[in-house]
Fold this sequence. Notes:
The chain contains 10 helices and 8 strands.
Amino acid sequence: MAKPNLQIACDHSDLPSALKAVKAVGDVVDIIEAGTIFILQVGDIGVKSLRALFPDKLIVADTKCADAGGTVAKNCADAGADWMTVICSATIPTMKAAAKEIKEVQVELYGNWTYEDAQRWLDAGISQAIYHQSRDALLAGETWGERDLERVKKLIDMGFRVSVTGGLAVDTLKLFEGIDVYTFITGRGITEAPDPRQAALDFRNEIIRIWGE
Length: 213
Ligand code: 5RP
Ligand code: MG
């Protein structure tokens, strides 16, 4: 079983604070995300700035794109993103159009979706999914549980590379022991920690402890 990647989500509302965070932890993480909040606030300068700072890192634009997939994907790719996200309720033509313009598209799982939908995404050539506990669901009291683990496992069995995200703490990772998670995506668990670099190292060390080097 491969060691999962660690991705930092920059969900900042302004450019300077995102750049400060990413400068502190960029060398510790495998993937850098221009978060949805960040992109909505600052636009493509956010992705361009991350790319300028880290020419060789994987960069994701978390657009949660619902329509105009080709245009949004081209804009993200032109700004320097390797991957972008589309919302699971987007149509297959939107997903396919996006996939033509950028290296990879990830489907963000929110709300209602079925395994039949998931098979259609695979058939359309989209093999990355992000299993997400939404901020608002977590705030409303939901937690990670057996139902989530079963869904993550089923998606992996179907052939997806599955990223996991939503209010992750270092302690959450051990729930996924024995599961072939592709990437853990962490925002506030790193960016709002008293020492973000140490928090990123703690996430990385916990991944290594559980999955090995
Ligand atoms: C929210 C997101 C976030 O980037 C993702 O959930 C990670 O952030 P956090 O760890 O703070 O929940 O895409 O829609
Ligand atoms: Mg995000």
